[in-house]
Amino acid sequence: MGASVDGPKRVDKLLIRSIRARLPPMRWLIPVLLAAFVLQTRPAHADTKAEARRYFQRGMRLIESGRYSEGIASLQKAYSIRPHRNVLFNIGRAYARAGNVDRAVDYFERYLATNPRDKSSVQATLRELKLRQNLRALVDEGMTAINSGRYLEGIALLKRAYAQRPHANLL
After folding, report:
1. Cβ-contact 67, 86 below 8 angstroms
2. By three-state DSSP, how is residue 13 classified?
3. What residues contact residue 96 under an 8 Å CB cut-off, 6+ apart?
4. Using one digit for the tens of pLDDT, what is the confidence trace for 51-89?
5. Between 126 and 165, residue with greater pLDDT
6. CA distance linking residue 73 with residue 88, whole number of Å
């Protein structure tokens, strides 16, 4: 009876040895899996970079041709695919050229948060944009007051705007 118990155990051990002999050693499995993962992710990285570049270049062409909203949308798509601070700068610049000072300020502030090398010149641009925001608010408030019959208040607001930056339209 002892022989029959030893027999199945021996068969199991032989079977396990046979399976182990056919399988590759485990020390090869990890590098193979790691290499497969790296090779699989590398093209995706390159693809996103190329796709973002296409959207960026398209956006810049559209902006140069005066199609600001389409160009900005394309730049935003490029940024969503592959964030880069230069895209933020160019979106801010496009908004400024389109006359959307509030959005331009937002994007230039986001760009400055990345601590770029051209920080001082962008800060100067941002100061100018914020001055334009302030002037626009004064003019809008002044015109609203005048249109509401509050002439003295409206004129005072327009004078404040003119004192900050003289402009023929405010005379």
Report:
1. no
2. helix
3. 104, 108, 125, 129
4. 999 999 999 999 999 999 999 999 999 999 999 999 999
5. 126
6. 12
